[in-house]
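Researcher: Let's do a round of design. I'm pasting the structure tokens now; please hold your answer until I've finished.
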């Protein structure tokens, strides 16, 4: 089973990773090409590109221009990302065997790095996949990454059981051309909803954490049979066959 997660905007490079074992991102060269494009932008342009304020844009500007400096900090992506989903993933609780297993089964898509394994070393950055960054291949990052990410995921699926547990947002899912994935690939897309007086509804912050928790559940339990995913019950969630449709599985609480 290959599990995919979106990256997080928030990163933590202050607290050391639990392991010093790191790997080199598969698309490190392409990340460098994007940094060269971003280096052409001033602070105001970066604010517009990233849809952030000038204070945040100044930080991004500094990150871009420090990217090629050897002393710029690096940290494995699974530990560096610090958003809500990664609090649910709780990579700090993984032992060495868990980390090695996650390295083989977890893929994090990234606007800058393309596709990351959790032990791939990354530097501080901010670049959303939906950013309209003009580059040698087009006008968006979807143009830049083209078939690369689909081919990469296809290769990973072929080396596994052709089961894809997609826990990404639509922004990152769009980077994969599902029609070009290996034949007979099974794609499971979980959704998470909260019960209210008027029915079930999605709450973004809870969904993000639940995605991370489900990734943790699948990795920690070494799940290979998709039916076993339905046993996911973290923080009160239960699988709802009534609300599920095909491979779009609904978990409610």
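Researcher: That's everything. Go ahead.
Model: Designed sequence:
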């Amino acid at each position: 089973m290959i599990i995919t997660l979106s990256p997080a905007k928030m990163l933590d490079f202050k607290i050391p990773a639990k392991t010093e074992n790191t790997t080199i991102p598969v698309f490190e060269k392409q990340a460098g090409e994007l940094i060269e494009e971003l280096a052409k932008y001033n602070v105001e342009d970066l604010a517009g590109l990233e849809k952030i304020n000038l204070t945040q844009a100044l930080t991004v500007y500094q990150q871009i221009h420090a990217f090629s400096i050897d002393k710029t900090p690096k940290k494995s992506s699974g530990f560096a990302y610090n958003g809500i989903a990664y609090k649910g993933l709780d990579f700090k609780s993984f032992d060495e065997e868990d980390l090695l297993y996650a390295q083989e089964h977890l893929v994090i898509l990234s606007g800058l790095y393309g596709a990351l394994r959790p032990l791939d070393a990354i530097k501080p950055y901010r670049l959303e996949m939906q950013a309209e960054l003009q580059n040698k291949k087009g006008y968006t990052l979807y143009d830049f990454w083209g078939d690369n990410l689909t081919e990469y995921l296809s290769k990973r699926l072929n080396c596994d059981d052709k089961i894809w547990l997609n826990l990404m947002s639509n922004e990152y899912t769009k980077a994969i051309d599902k029609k070009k994935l290996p034949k007979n690939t099974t794609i499971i897309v979980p959704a998470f909803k909260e019960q209210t007086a008027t029915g079930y509804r999605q709450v973004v912050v809870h969904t993000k954490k639940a995605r991370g928790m489900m990734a943790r559940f699948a990795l920690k339990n070494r799940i290979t049979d998709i039916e076993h995913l339905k046993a996911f019950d973290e923080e009160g969630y239960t699988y709802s066959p009534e609300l599920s449709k095909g491979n779009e599985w609904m978990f409610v609480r």
